[in-house]
Design goal:
By secondary structure, this protein is α+β, with helices and mostly antiparallel strands. The protein has helices spanning about 45-60, 65-80, 90-100, 130, 155-160, 220-230, 250-260, 305-320, 380, 400-410, 425-435, 445-460, 470-480; strands at about 1-10, 30-40, 85-90, 105, 110-115, 115-125, 140-145, 145, 165-175, 180-185, 190, 195-200, 205-210, 235-240, 270-275, 280-285, 295-300, 320-325, 335-340, 345-355, 370-375. It is built from 13 helices and 21 strands.
């Protein structure tokens, strides 16, 4: 027999008594410590040691014991068939925790794969990328002299340095510049707050708008500051935007919900977990004595996950507020991190609990279904097309890219088919664009012609008035 000492940090609320810890109306943390007996005959360490020893001593590649132990750990975790459980070494866990901060070391850009190339889609204000001269819609051709045109996204990301002061040399294709353009960016500190907010005026009504990108270490503080400021401004209603929010810290979610939802005997949500044979249920309650004096809509989409879904479901089922958008990701499990004793700094992050909505629903693999389904329109879903190395899309051809371009041509006021066949009407629309912008009129789509079409799409998609989901929320709140 041998013993393993364990420490579990639990978060609980409202009259939940556990191991002598009890708090009412206030969320607290309580550490549970103990020892667990593991009978040696139930865990065959001798067999595992024998396998590792034999491989280490006889395999022709002469693997190190450290490599074999790491492989064994990865194999154990892989056997769980759980994409959310992971073993972190100290460096990787430090990088992981950086996600929850309001700043990080990097470039300050978002790169997306669009039309099979890497395109700069966001540049954070004041970031190294902005200072270095990268622009929205730059197509990345190479990084530090290494072509990325045939790379996967992860391979491209691996080329980006991560230490402050390192210089990244980008070669990009840029609208309006014929040749490849070089940009140097120095890695630095990027400030990117998890919360932003504004006031939207619609007639005589003031609609507060709060965007929450993630649930990080300071998100609750920033959110509550924003909420207080908006309430001081006298808002008539509120939109909370969780679209694209992957989740994060449960503590932040709880603190935010407690400022929005009333206390009742029914919890906002419940978490159930098991630790070494003991089952624990944690119930989380609102704290307001009466509802807000304004209506609230929460925006979600298919990339709203985990803590975002806890928040949205609580607003919907406990608060009776409206959720608008499309069905969320569907992550109904949560993870805890345990720092390992045998390897200082290493951390095991395991799925240890399932969570349930106010009405007892488990949304795992299902998602939170909005009260009002609002799909994106075809112009919001369209993407920009990029041509490289003198490529031309010609008349009388068929393809998905042509269909996408035809959608944008309709946005620009032309009436053309959208099935992907490059017909005469499509050619005539392209010729008119070329003529009106003093380009060589061919009727075929080259890079210069596409720059104009891409710009029209970008202008549309970056105009908040064309955000169909946000506008639907505003219409709902104002009774239009």
């Amino acid at each position: 027999m041998y013993k393993k000492i364990f420490i579990i940090t639990l978060v609980f609320a409202m009259s939940l008594t556990l191991v002598g810890c009890k708090k009412e109306y206030v969320i607290e943390t309580c550490e549970i410590t103990g020892e667990v007996d593991f009978p040696e005959n139930e865990i065959d360490y001798d067999l595992l040691s024998e396998v590792i020893y034999t491989i280490e001593g006889t395999h022709y590649t002469l693997p190190t014991r450290e490599t074999l132990i790491k492989g064994a750990i990865e194999g154990v975790i892989s056997s769980l068939d759980d994409p959310y459980s992971k073993y972190f070494n100290s460096e990787d866990f430090s990088d992981y925790e950086t996600f929850f901060n309001e700043s990080y070391i990097g470039l300050g850009i978002s790169i997306e794969t669009i039309d099979e190339v890497f395109v700069v889609r966001e540049i954070i204000k004041g970031s190294p990328a902005e200072l270095g001269g990268l622009l929205y819609n730059d197509v990345i051709v190479s990084i530090n002299g290494v072509s990325v045109l045939d790379k996967s996204y992860s391979e491209m990301s691996d080329l980006l340095p991560v230490d402050v002061g390192e210089v990244v040399e980008f070669s990009v294709i840029r609208s309006g510049i014929e040749n490849i353009h070089d940009v140097s960016v120095t890695v630095g500190i990027v400030f990117h707050p998890s919360v932003s907010y504004s006031v939207i005026e619609r007639g005589n009504e003031l609609i507060g708008y709060i965007n929450v990108r993630k649930f990080g270490n300071l998100t609750a503080t920033l959110f509550l500051d924003a909420l207080n400021d908006l309430e001081d401004k006298g808002i008539d209603s509120l939109v909370i935007d969780l679209r694209g929010n992957p989740g994060g810290k449960l503590e932040a979610t709880i603190l935010m919900l407690r400022r929005l939802l009333v206390y009742s005997y029914d919890p906002m949500f419940r978490i159930s977990s098991e630790a070494y044979g003991e089952v624990y249920n944690y119930f989380y309650f609102g704290t307001l004595t009466e509802p807000k004096d304004y209506d609230i809509v929460t925006l979600v989409n298919e990339r709203s996950a985990s803590a975002s879904e806890i928040f949205a479901s609580a607003m919907q089922e406990h608060g009776g507020y409206t959720i608008l958008g499309v069905t969320t990701y569907g992550k109904g499990v949560g993870q805890n991190s345990t720092e390992l004793i045998e390897s200082e700094g290493d951390t095991l992050r395991l799925t240890t609990g399932t969570w349930y909505t106010a009405e007892g629903n488990w949304i795992h693999g299902i998602g939170v279904i909005p009260n009002i389904i609002q799909e994106l329109n075809r112009y919001e879903e369209a993407y920009e097309v990029f041509l490289l190395n003198g490529e031309v899309i010609k008349y009388d051809t068929v393809g998905e890219r042509v269909a996408n371009i035809q959608v944008v041509l309709n946005l620009m006021g032309y009436t053309v088919r959208t099935d992907g066949y490059y017909d005469l009407a499509t050619k005539e629309a392209v010729m008119e664009i070329q003529a009106s912008h003093s380009l060589t009129v061919t009727g075929n789509l080259d890079r210069n012609s596409l720059d104009i079409i891409n710009e029209a799409l970008s202008d549309y998609q970056n105009n908040v008035d064309n955000d169909s989901q946000l506008q639907a929320a505003i219409d709902y709140l104002t009774g239009n």
